[in-house]
Amino acid sequence: MHETHHIAVIDFGSQYTQLIVRRARELGFFARLYAIEDFPDIGKPGAIILSGGPKSTADADAPDLDFEKLREFGVPVLGVCYGMQLLNLKFGGTVRPSNHREYGPAELHPAAAEGLYEGITPGSQVWMSHSDTVETLPACATVLAANQQGTPVSLRWEDRFFGIQFHPEVTHSHEGLRILHNFLLTAQKIEPFRIDDLKREVMDDIRARAGDRQVVCGVSGGVDSTVLAVLLHEAGVNMRAIFVDHGLMRKNEGDEVRNNFHRMGVPIETVDCADRFLAALEGVDDPEKKRVIIGNLFIDVFWEAVGDAEMLAQGTLYPDVIESASNARSKASKIKTHHNRVDRILELQAEGKVLEPLSEFFKDEVRALGASLGIAHDILQRHPFPGPGLAVRCPGAVSRDRLDIIRESDAIFIGKLKEHGWYDKVWQAYAALIPVKTVGVKGDERCYEWAVALRAVVSEDAMTADWVELPPTILRETSHRILNDVAGVNRVLYDVSTKPPASIEWE
Ligand code: XMP
Which residues, judged by CB distance below 6 Å to any ligand atom, belong to the binding site of ligand 1? Predict the structure, then answer.
């Protein structure tokens, strides 16, 4: 799909490779990542970028590619870091291996403010992360830029092969995006990328693959599964959308999910199994045991509802695909099995029965796709919500009473954030129950009741997070309402822990 006039990024294993794809898309062009093993099956690209990587070109197992095939594409090529060193070798130059890694900022001094460096400020900060450097240059090479010591950090070979030693894709390279853009401007054939074009391609692909078969998908009310279900519906395939209500949802969430789908004209089936989940969780207070129970039961319940599915659609996103593929290739120990890749799904996949229409998209593109499908802003901007639901916001054993306290407190807090215009400014916010009773006074009576913790964080990718300095008015109004309206709570706390070391959820 979309394998003509795109930007093919060849992955030599750098931790930043995925960012190159992202940046190209931010610049309005369609880019895809290809494993080095897949080269030269990369369609008909309009430009090629060779990524950085952890290896040295001198290593016995250094990744390599067929240079003649690379030339045959006849399009501009940009080698980044390892990619630059490899190109220099291919053109007949040499690379000096080193055990010393240069990591951090450097100054960029272009030879001329044109081509790759048009509009770039002399001395602009760029980010280095490499050990080896180019040594001798072949006759066809020109130095386009040097660092503050006069060492070449950017080369051009012949007319359409470019190399840069630094990483333009990270924000620490202050004008990196402009440099990438300047490179892409040298490509005649790449075309601007429009979400609507991709939407049409994705829908055609769904129709072609599904044919008359019935396609089943799970929905949770979250962004990805909602966009997936609407996409299938709009593509006109015979579909079933199944919503498993495990009783660990937020206040009125089941009704909201059903109403949202009703508004969009997409029928969904609810499997109401709160009792089953609560029974299975009774008395279990170990966080990992709770997660395993919920995860396994969820799969059982879902597959019971699915029955003999002809096809399954799931909302796997592009980063998940990249991660699964690199996990499969790497010899490193497996850290986790992605839930979209459990055995049952792999079997269906082998039979060609799994559709993953969002697998070309990043999260923000899924939102853009959702908007172009007419899905309302409030659905697309929902905060992430964990699969195990409120169970991970209820340390210790889960019970109906405790869940009710969380639901009521959470609804008050989220309501206040929306009222004060803060909901869209935070990555995630919620109320958790702290299973500790403390003494207080209500009316003229002594009370001995639970504590509720409020948490609001900002994050880029959920890997790290910072707590939000909410205006005191919001905290005061929220606390006041919870203490007055939620039975069983006499204390409200605000969680001021960063991640790490704390996680975003309490369990
Ligand atoms: P933590 O608590 O690990 O959470 O800092 C990071 C992000 O992941 C979400 N989360 C989950 N999402 N299943 C999910 O689908 C889970 O088991 C799960 N656990 C945490 C969490 O809400 C946050 O956005």
Answer: 384, 386-388, 392, 428, 462, 499, 503-505
